[in-house]
TrEMBL record:
Location in the cell: Cytoplasm
Cell membrane as UniProt keyword: no
Cofactor mode of binding and number, as noted: Mg(2+). Can also accept Mn(2+).
Amino-acid positions noted as binding ATP in the UniProt annotation, renumbered to this chain: 17, 206-210, 280-282, 328-332
Cofactor(s) essential for the protein: Mg(2+); Mn(2+)
PROSITE patterns linked: ACETATE_KINASE_1, ACETATE_KINASE_2
Organism (species): Alkalimarinus alittae
Function of the molecule: Catalyzes the formation of acetyl phosphate from acetate and ATP. Can also catalyze the reverse reaction.
Chain positions recorded as Mg(2+) binding sites: 10, 382
Pfam families: Acetate_kinase (PF00871)
GO function term, MF aspect, one: kinase activity
EC numbers on record: 2.7.2.1
Gene: ackA
Residue numbers marked as site, Transition state stabilizer: 178, 239
Protein name per its UniProtKB record: Acetate kinase
Length: 395
């Protein structure tokens, strides 16, 4: 078991993220990201401890990038034999998967079927699985789904109030995403409370470039802000989140079509849309501090929507054991947490400025006064969850 490793792959349409873990104690010994694959600007960054190397992968495709990753790991003596399992992030598991599964022909066919629901993501995830099978034909591969944790949503939460046959004929319903992260931080929060997860009620807020909140009742996801696609819900880096569906007709009348509307809502909205500057929260704060009013407005709208959604999630819970912040913004942006909780005295939050400023580092994640409702900062680790699920399903 000593040299046994687990390789985690997150294959996007033009990117490839990987992480190599030891199977013995789930130590992440190397990780990396290849970006802009298929273009002349393709490059890869590989991290081993504090060491970071970046190489050009000019015009490389996913296959060349994977070859580069495997060769680099071998050269670094980190992959002395084939991994005992390869875990893949798969974005959409539809209604077919409520847990991680070992990949076989039937699973592959199901993931392919779900591609209709996630045309940008599932084909890339499948490509990752196919390519790894070429490199390591006898290594078990495991699929870990973003949607799986939310398969416990009750029907009242997942149905859209549109003609029912669209659900039965086309699977049009709310699925939810970021499930791996919501589940992981809920498990950590439960362990901090010294209670089994099955006895905990949480609201978890995953705030990265994509953002979603989830209501977790007795350890199960009972409502979440993302829907059929990861566009619904909160305002995000470049995504609008909820809008009036009537906007479509209006935009068509002024000359836009479904492609240009989709591009606008997915890539040109959210923080970048309102600020007109950037989708990066850190940069927005710098701009706002220097008097940029649109940057300040983008931050304000973000917190307004977040507070509104947290309050909405509370309506699915009998009580709140904790609100959990995670993701790049949730873990690091103390001002976002403060501005959001300031809008929610109705839920009993009393933020402690001192604990919030240091992201709960000195209080086991707690950022609120013990007299009020608990809010925690819990760093997420989706790769670790994928590695653990891979080992569980590969053996
Ligand atoms: P992804 O969803 O791509 O994994 P991350 O979870 O890394 O993204 O989150 C990226 C977001 O986190 C960016 O908007 C970034 O500006 C923000 N962020 C990271 N660190 C800070 C910080 N110290 N203060 C404010 N925002 C931060």
């Amino acid at each position: 078991m000593n040299n046994d490793t687990i390789l985690v792959i997150n294959c996007g349409s033009s990117s490839l993220k990987f992480a190599l873990f030891t199977a013995k104690d789930f130590d992440c010994v190397a990780s990396g990201l290849a970006e802009k694959l298929g273009t002349t600007d393709a490059f890869i960054t590989i991290k081993k401890g504090d060491n970071k190397t970046t190489s050009n992968l000019t015009c490389s495709d996913h296959s060349t990038a994977i070859k580069h990753v495997i060769n680099s790991l071998k050269e670094m003596q980190l992959l002395t034999r084939e991994p005992i399992g390869i875990g893949h992030r798969v974005v959409h598991g539809g209604e077919s998967f409520s847990n991680s599964v070992r990949v076989d022909k039937t699973v592959l066919a199901e993931i392919e079927k779900c591609a209709a629901l996630a045309p940008l993501h599932n084909p890339a995830n499948l490509l990752g699985i196919t390519l790894m099978a070429e490199f390591y034909p006898s290594t078990p591969q495991v699929a870990v789904f973003d949607t799986a944790f939310h398969q416990s949503l009750p029907k009242a939460s997942y149905l859209y109030p549109i003609p029912y046959h669209l659900y039965t004929d086309h699977g049009i319903r709310r699925y939810g995403f970021h499930g791996t992260s919501h589940k992981y931080v809920a498990e950590i929060a439960a362990s901090k409370l010294k209670k089994p997860l099955s006895e905990c009620n949480f609201i978890t807020a995953h705030l990265g470039n994509g953002c979603s909140v989830t209501a977790i009742k007795d350890g199960l996801s009972v409502d979440t802000s993302m829907g059929l696609t990861p566009l619904e819900g909160l305002m995000m880096g470049t995504r609008s989140g909820d809008i009036d569906p009537g906007l479509f007709e209006f935009l068509c009348k002024i000359g836009m079509n479904s492609e240009s509307i989709s591009q606008m809502l997915n890539k040109e909205s959210g923080l970048i849309g309102v600020s007109g500057e950037t989708n990066d929260m850190r940069t927005l704060f710098e701009l706002a501090e220097n008097g940029n009013e649109r940057a300040a407005l983008a931050i304000e709208v973000f917190c307004f929507k977040l507070a509104k959604y947290i309050a909405a999630m509370a309506s699915s819970l009998p009580s709140i054991d904790a609100l959990v912040f995670t993701g790049g913004i949730g873990e690091n942006a103390s001002q976002i947490r403060a501005m959001t909780l300031a809008r929610l005295p109705i839920l009993g939050f009393k933020i402690s400025s001192q604990l919030n400023e240091c992201h709960g580092a000195e209080s086991d994640g707690r950022i609120t006064d013990p007299k009020g409702t608990l809010a925690l900062v819990v760093p997420t680790n989706e790769e670790l969850v994928i590695a653990r699920d891979t080992l569980k399903n590969a053996l």
